[in-house]
Design goal:
182 residues, mainly beta, 5-stranded antiparallel sheet, 4-stranded antiparallel sheet, 8% helix
């Protein structure tokens, strides 16, 4: 019996919480973004994408990484062209909570799924209570915002404790893969 238990334990899948998002890497070439917490500027309003683009913001919800740490999960369906930066804004009733920006789009057609960790090792995104909105933005360096979609973030807002993340922190800056089976 002990030998069976040991062999079955070896079949258990490793915690994939800190595996970066392959789909986001394919879309924008990176899984690490530049982050600003409580910036003064508001998120851009909705903008219809150009005719040769598709941007469907399918899901924005408070979730958890496989290890149970709170996260924001994002799922989108896109058809993009090269050279556009991507941004994700999180807002509450008081204004902008956080802005993630990074990369440069490639030609990409498909689903993108990633999670941004909200709390880790004494640092936490400064979420307020109440409703939160996510804004997905694609911005060209010269022409500005070429596509923007907004949606309410679903599920219960997690209660987070910790200081606002500092430079070099992975909290909200590294895009982790979505949980297996989702």
């Amino acid at each position: 019996m002990a030998a069976i238990a040991v062999s079955l334990a070896g079949c258990e899948k490793k915690d994939a919480s800190y595996t970066t998002s392959p789909s986001l890497k394919a879309l924008v070439g990176t899984t690490t973004g530049n982050v600003a917490f409580r910036p003064e500027e508001p998120a851009p309003g909705p903008v219809e994408p150009p005719a040769d683009w598709q941007v469907e913001f399918a899901l924005a919800r408070f979730a958890e990484l496989e290890n149970g740490n709170p996260a924001l999960e994002i799922v989108m369906q896109v058809k993009t062209r090269p050279g556009t930066g991507m941004e994700l804004w999180v807002s509450d009733e008081a204004g902008t909570v956080a802005r993630w920006s990074g990369g440069s789009t490639a030609v990409y057609v498909g689903t993108v799924c990633f999670q941004l960790e909200l709390e880790r090792e004494g640092e936490a995104v400064p979420l307020g209570s109440g409703k939160h909105t996510a804004t997905l933005v694609f911005r060209e360096p010269v022409d500005g915002v070429i596509a923007a979609r907004q949606m309410e973030i679903t599920h219960t807002t997690p209660v987070l404790t910790g200081e606002t993340p500092t430079a070099g922190s992975t909290v909200f800056s590294t895009a982790w893969a979505c949980r297996r089976g989702q």
